[in-house]
Amino acid sequence: EIILDPSIRDWVVLPMVIIFGCSAMVRHYVTLLLKSEKMASIEQLQPMNTVKRAQITRINSKFITPNAFAMRKHYFTASQKKDGMKGALREKVKSEAMNQMMNPNSMLEMMKGNMTFMVSNFVMMGLMSYFFGGFVLAKVPFSLTQKFKMMLQRGIELNTLDVSYVSSVSWYFLVSFGMRGFLSLILGEKSASDDAKAMQMQMGMGAGPNMAFDAPKVYKQERVSLRLHNHDWALEFAEKKLLGEPI
Description:
The chain has helices at residues 6-34, 42-59, 66-77, 96-102, 104-132, 149-152, 168-178, 180-187, 189-202, 215-228, 238-243; strands at 136-139, 165-167.
């Protein structure tokens, strides 16, 4: 049993929480200063709007006549129309993922965000290790298995130390994840989630890949959905239903 000095709480635990909160706010505003305003181009918006129009047509098809739906379906899916043009969902478009890879401005924005997080995190880790390295800061009020030892006692190589004690380095990571809710109230939910994803990637937890709009794939899916859609005109007997007459 190790008795923890109350001074550790006052001069190590609480200062680490305050320092991390301040660094997160500084990183947030530095990112905003480095971030340039993005303007979506027509080439990016047009495929999205085309898919949205096709989806609205398919979902609300019951409110138009079968002939009107057939004309709209032909407009989107026709392999070749009378004027020689193809359907709107058969036009050749580039995937947004490829556009981002070929766009140097997009790569520069990603580099700015990654560098801001990495530099601030390296500085914070260096300061924490220099000033608070080797400290046992807290004790978990319940027993844990040996599998939690690597997570709670980073930087302290003592096999005889009980698993419930928390080292300074582990406390830093616990605070970084535990303060996400608090930071979301101050900085906004988007900023907190971005920091959390970056931290997960650095620790090897690997957040999911950023799903870009794949226009060719979405076009094909929507063409199939329109071809297989069974049109049912809901207003065919609207007058009789309104008057209560038998259909």
